[in-house]
Amino acid sequence: MIRKSTLLFTLVFTLILATNTNGQWSSANLVSGRSQLSAASSSTRAIFFGGIGMITVPPNVADVYNSSNNLWSNASMSKGRTSSAGAGANTKIAFAGGADDWILSVYTNIDIFNIATGTWSTSHLSVARDRLAAAAAGTKIVFAGGQFSGAGQVYNTVDILETATNFLTTSQLSVARYSLSGAGAGNKVAFAGGIDINGNYLNTVDIYDVTNGTWMTDTLSIPRGNLTACSLGDKIYFAGGENASGASKRIDIYDVVNNTWTIDSLSIARTNLSSASVGDLVIFAGGGTPTSSTVYKRVDMLNTVTNTWTIDSMSTARAYAAATSVGNKFMIGGGIPSAVGAPSNTVAIYTVTSTGLHPEFNNATAFEMMPNPAQNNVSITINATSENSTVEVYNLIGEKVVEMPIETSLTLDLRNLVKGIYLVKLNSKGATYTQKLMVD
After folding, report:
1. Is 172 exposed, middle or buried (0-12, 13-18, 19+ CB in 10 A)?
2. Nearest-angstrom CA–CA distance, 218 and 199
């Protein structure tokens, strides 16, 4: 058993009921209104997949957003379905499982989008199921758990997709369950909570190391299902959900490097909410009561650098929506405004407009700059090779003056910069590290 910290609610909770000044809201439209959809992203694409509208047949549609040109398109799924699960890794985004409740069917279908080619392909889970969870780390996308309610079956099955080859292998969770949630950080994916075949809410956490293929288990601070999960840097956040006592405020935070846990709280208890991270922010949006008699517009934002919270609001209340992020945008789409409301066709988009830089957060262990102060050139070295990392340089009014990719090291030419103080920002594996640079 991994030692669990008992630290409770140590983060400062700052309540700001107006629009967050670090970003702004806008909106887009899905092809059709639907709830119980899934969303995932990687690189320049974000995809809202499947779901169900007012009619009983799930439409076979996916909405695709391209951040490189700010355009939307749509694609046909291999099978229209609801309650699937999706995640993105490397140049692939994959959605698996799902159901058509009208004909009491569940599916093995996996729809795989190749970002590099802009094409779709298909594969199949080892067991058909819906209300499963998906998470990604490294080059692997992992699909875990699920159910077939029509047959009274709940599964501990795990299917692991290697995105480089589309090759699938299988494994098992420690406990069969559905309505669990999962996310990945570093070289680990974690699946937490859920509901077992007897309707019991679980606190079980299964943690998979994608590097060595090993599993370990731990527990949430309280059991719950229908929770949400996302990650930022080396931490995975499991938030909200419900159990026999009703909706929950609880956030369990797992540090994948130190194998430790801390606990925090949402501003209001809710289940069937959605989450994703963008920049330095972890964002939890929407959700409602277990019966959806009350559905919320509420958005909680955790700044992971300053450890402070702000509260914001969407224009539309929504539960059973789906959220993801791409570039500097958090996106939450679809969902229902109430137990009897028509599903939404809108995507609420929160665009981070500030640089997200915090001069007081100088993580000298993340990267080194020499010399500093510098005149003509500065050499930057990061402590571990990391694909898809970038170095950005900002002046003190927030203008980005340099952006370059980095794997282990690079040399920046400073001769075109005026003398003064700059902020150098390293983006690596979902985390952000910032140091001051003096150019003289």
Report:
1. middle
2. 20
pLDDT of 28-82, one tens digit each? 999 999 999 999 999 999 999 999 998 878 999 999 999 989 999 999 999 999 9
Nearest Cα neighbor of 205 from 180, 226, 228 is 180
| Lookup: tokens for 25 | 């809201």
Structure tokens at 271: 């289940």
Distance, CA of 427 to CA of 388 (rounded, Å): 9
Separation of alpha carbons 311 and 318, rounded Å: 16
Residue 59, helix vs strand vs coil: coil
pLDDT band at 102 (very low <50, low <70, confident <90, very high): confident
Global pTM reads: 0.79
Strands 389-394 and 400-406: antiparallel
Coil, helix or strand for 149? Answer: helix
**In terms of Cα–Cα distance, which of 101, 108, 99 is closest to 168?**
108
Nearest to 87 by CA among 143, 26, 132: 143
- Asked whether 94 and 45 are in contact (CB, 8 A), the reply is no
